[in-house]
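Researcher: Here's my situation. A collaborator sent me these components and asked whether they could plausibly form a single complex. I don't have experimental data yet, so a predicted model of the whole assembly would be a useful starting point for our discussion.
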Amino acid sequence: MTEWETVIGLEVHCELATATKLFCGCRNAFGDEPNTNVCPVCLGLPGSLPVLNRGAVELAMRLGLALGCEVRPSLFHRKNYFYPDMPKDYQISQYDQPVNVDGVVELADGARIGVERAHLEEDTGKSSHVGGGGRIHEADHSLVDYNRAGVPLVEIVSRPDLRSSEQAKAYVNELRAVLLATGASDARMEEGSMRVDANISVRPVGSSVLGTRCEVKNLNSTRSLARAVDYEARRQIELLSAGEQVLQQTRHWDEADGRTSPLRSKEEAFDYRYFPEPDLVPLSPEPAWQAAVGEALPLLPAARRRRLAAATGAGAASVAMVVERGLDDLVLAALEAGGDPGRLMVHAEHDLAGATGALDATAFAGLTSMEAGGALTATQAKAVLAELVATGGDPEAVAGALGYEALPGEVLAGAVDAAIAANPAAWDRFLAGDAKVAGFFVGQVMKATAGKADGKAVTALLRQRAAS
Amino acid sequence: MAERITTADVVHVAALARLELSADELELFTGQLAAVLDHAADVEALELSEVVPTAHPLPLVNVLRDDVVHRSLDRHEVLDAAPSVEGHRFRVPPVLGEPS
């Protein structure tokens, strides 16, 4: 039986976080009253002329640099089509000479996904279809709001480098993290400021030829994306296994049904009759301009992960989680202040999912030092940490206020010796190598010390006694 | 000279433009479009391999404006000019599907 491999390429559209539209000074805002942010340019009125927004260009360049793209001279083209969502009857986009080419998105597990291009274009207006169940071709008529027409977008086109629904999801999450870090977009899928289309095909494992692909639209969350990829791969594998062919199509994902259905046959690129936009001059990102834009770039997620992994020696999954939560700066500062790397990472990953509140790096470091020195048990440390987040302060003072007085070493040793003396049979089993009995002794010592003993310290003492 | 444009090309473009053409019109427009392309052939005949394609007739790049909000048009004024309006939106005829 043939084994199949899924091949996925994603096209991600992101609205840029500018104050104004791409070619006019109308507000770029989500959720305003319909048709209040419109002017002769974005309504396509005769005689109006587009002027390119410097802010949008710089955000696109910033994103390009963040993705390691070559940022190059580029042109704008008119993409002609017949929907009323663009009053000009064309969309201004970049065609064969986009501003950013050849980049990469580095995933948390180290996988590198190629980015073919990230180009600038304008968004379309928003149509709602009235009658016919809201379906475009069955509607009685359509209503159009042009507030979104002309809002700046970047379209980020990946190479067909993704191999599973999980990886597709990870790519979108990573891209979103880069968009947020660069400030290029607020990247909200639920508000439509980030939209994902997936090109999906399958091929026999080992083949280097791409299968016929389908483009799936209407993916409103990363969950929809993953479900649609799995559904579509299964559908194509069933067709091919039955000796049938996959038709190149645009398909619509139905979230409620959990299926895709054909939308329209794929219009060939030349059907859009692209031609250079005569009203806009070329864009040429000179080296000095690029350097200035590049200087404003923050440290990006992949670099932050490498930095944190190097400093703490933690595994990839923990590092990714802590960076995703934005806790890496706190951990690094606490490490600098003498904190215990392993314990800092454990708390950042498991105990600081919400806000870090009043916790500062020094207190965080102090807490892990107390824990490492045996002054606090893991359970006590969690409680102290919660208090530090809620009200701040010094970890020793907080531990004291909570009644977590460190057990003096000789008290603990005395309690351990007493437990051994009182349970000779259990001790013999421990000496014979029955490690499970350690738990019994820890329980005995806990009882004797009213829960103040550290389990690990007790176990260490038991081993010490056994060895002497 | 090879035929520059066929009736099938015109049928295709007409379908994209959602136009229904009669047989007479098809013949007429095929001829007219061929004449336009013949004119382009005059340019093609020139030796231009050393000439860089012109992206734009103006010797300018990077004509930009600052990202500053300007006042938009008044909605009443805009919608008053529309042939049909519903719920402060432009009301348009249904979007036609591809001829199947």
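Model: Some features of this prediction you could bring to your collaborator: The helical segments of chain B are 7-16, 23-44, 75-80. Chain B touches chain A through 35 residues (CB under 8 Å).
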